[in-house]
């Protein structure tokens, strides 16, 4: 995996991605479109074309199959014109295909962490069946591209209105959409036109512990039961202690959470914590320094597999804290029933005030290089 360097070329892509076989691909930076040439892998024959297209709001991945039954690669574009896809072996590993659209971002070198030149892409067959039965495992031509199969939740928050946080990860059983909700007087949850990534962000206003806006999420028990990475951009506008970026749990005894400012000492550092038996048994990772208010920060928690392992908290692309005595995984919390962005399991904790953008959950532990590349994706 190469480290990515972003180039904000709003006019065109620096180097078009070429399909593995059959014709040449082309990028349309104004329409957010990447289309493969004729040829591809077409099972018993015929030409298979593929493209990832954002549509009006960028949430409509398109797949097409030829008469021979060869499926198309699902190269789903995000709402700001980036498809964030895997590049099957043989393609240029330094470029993410399907980019363009408003913003026309290009990758000069390296790959974002949702792109992997070694991705195992399903091959077309006579019958046009799939390799795993899920939508995102649809038959694909050689050299085609698709979303990282380990990305199980992805909320770009790029809607301009409404109360749904659309999930673009295309994990089996999805989409796993979130719902924008409010409670009490003075709490708000809406979409903001002041994002860090894309066109919009989630804006939350809290009124202490009495009221606030938040997003309701699905449980991770089946989506990412073992290894997991949770990544998000956050713009805190309040220094209130223990306000949650996210919190997956069923009670204050069963929880997995990230706070912008922990409340157990005066340092006010960011903290990831996880417990299945109350605060006395919390497994914690604290950042080395507090977050700056009224500024965007990229927070990422990466937890690998193992009975005992080292968990890492990253801040702005760099490791900021570790705990090498971690033992818990999401499955240890069972089916959590209270899963939030911006709200805590604890009734006395304040609601989050600030903005949230590009929330992602992977069912693997991202490496330091992948986290740095994800931080660069803005």
What multimeric state do the chains show? single chain
Quickly give the structural class.
Answer: mainly beta
Instruction: Tell how many strands the DSSP assignment holds.
Output: 23
Backbone shape? globular
CATH class of the largest domain: Mainly Beta
CATH architecture annotation of the largest domain: Sandwich
Largest sheet: 16 strands, antiparallel
| Spatial extent as radius of gyration | 21 Å
Query: What is the straight-line distance between the termini?
Result: 19 Å
| Average predicted confidence as pLDDT | 72
Strand content: 25-35%
Tell me the number of structural domains.
2
Order of helices and strands: EEEEEEEEEEEEEEEEEEEEEEEH
Task: Classify the helix fraction into a percent range.
Answer: under 10%
- Helix count, per DSSP? 1
- Poorly predicted ranges: 1-145
- CATH topology group of the largest domain: Jelly Rolls
What report would you give on this structure?
The protein is an all-beta fold and 378 residues long. Helix content is 2%, strand content 31%. It has 1 helix and 23 strands. The strands form 4 sheets. The chain has a 16-stranded antiparallel β-sheet that branches. Strands 2-3-4 form a 3-stranded antiparallel β-sheet, with no helix packed on it. Strands 1-6 form a two-stranded antiparallel sheet. It is globular, with a radius of gyration of 21 Å. The chain starts with a strand and ends with a helix.
């Amino acid at each position: 995996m190469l480290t990515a360097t972003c180039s904000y070329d709003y006019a065109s892509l620096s180097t078009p991605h070429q399909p593995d076989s059959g014709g040449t691909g082309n990028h349309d930076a104004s329409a957010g479109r990447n289309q493969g040439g004729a040829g591809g892998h077409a099972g018993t024959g015929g030409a298979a074309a593929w493209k990832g297209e954002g549509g009006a709001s960028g949430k409509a991945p398109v797949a097409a199959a030829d008469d021979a039954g060869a499926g198309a690669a699902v190269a789903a574009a995000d709402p700001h014109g980036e498809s964030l896809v895997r590049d099957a072996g043989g393609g240029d590993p330094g470029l993410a295909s399907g980019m363009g659209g408003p913003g026309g971002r290009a990758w000069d070198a390296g790959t974002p962490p949702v792109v992997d030149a070694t991705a195992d892409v399903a091959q077309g067959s006579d019958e046009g069946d799939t390799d795993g039965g899920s939508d995102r495992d649809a038959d694909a031509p050689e050299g085609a591209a698709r979303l990282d199969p380990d990305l199980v939740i992805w909320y770009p928050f790029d809607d301009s209105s409404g109360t749904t946080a659309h999930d673009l990860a295309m994990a089996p059983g999805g989409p796993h959409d979130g719902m924008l909700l409010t409670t009490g007087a003075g709490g708000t949850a809406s979409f903001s036109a002041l994002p860090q990534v894309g066109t919009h962000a989630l804006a939350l206003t809290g009124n202490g512990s009495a009221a606030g806006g938040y997003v309701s999420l699905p449980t991770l028990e089946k989506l990412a039961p073992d290894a997991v990475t949770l990544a998000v951009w956050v713009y805190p506008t309040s220094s209130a202690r223990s306000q949650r970026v996210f919190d997956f749990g069923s009670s204050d005894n069963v929880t997995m959470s990230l706070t912008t400012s922990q409340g157990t000492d005066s340092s006010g550092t960011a903290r990831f914590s996880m417990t299945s038996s109350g605060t006395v048994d919390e497994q914690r990772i604290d950042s080395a320094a507090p977050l700056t208010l009224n500024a965007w920060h990229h927070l990422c928690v990466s937890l690998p597999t193992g009975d005992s392992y080292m968990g890492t908290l990253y801040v702005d692309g760099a490791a900021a804290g570790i705990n090498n005595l971690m033992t818990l995984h999401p499955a240890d919390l069972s089916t959590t029933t209270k899963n939030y962005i911006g709200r805590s399991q604890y009734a006395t904790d304040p609601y989050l005030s600030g903005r949230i953008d590009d929330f992602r959950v992977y069912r693997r532990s991202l490496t330091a290089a992948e986290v740095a590349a994800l931080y660069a994706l803005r």
